[in-house]
Amino acid sequence: ALAICTHNEGSVRRAISAMATNNIPPAHPNIHFAQILGMCDNVTAALSASGYNAHKLVLFGDYCDLFPWLLRRIDENRDMLGGCQAERPVLWRAWTQRLSGR
Q1: pTM of the entire structure?
Q2: Sheet bearing 2-5, strands edge to edge
Q3: How far apart are CA 56 and CA 39, in angstroms?
Q4: What is the mean pLDDT of residues 9-35?
């Protein structure tokens, strides 16, 4: 099995392209994409909506243990911070739809 664990949209696009080039279907049982819960949720949602196996890593444990690990992930993925701006319109649309009952 292969887990593609990245918040980098370019890396996700390259993986999807490689899958298509090699005729690997999106829902192949041995290929999974994953991101940390709360980070790049738009990427996970897009993957899932397109039929890919998409997962979220749910952090649990002692705050003193998790926080340094999480800071390292953020430092490693600085480009991900720009993705937060891309998520705002998506989150706003979802929020207003839920409030309006649609």
Answers
A1: 0.71
A2: 2-5, 31-36, 54-57
A3: 9
A4: 96
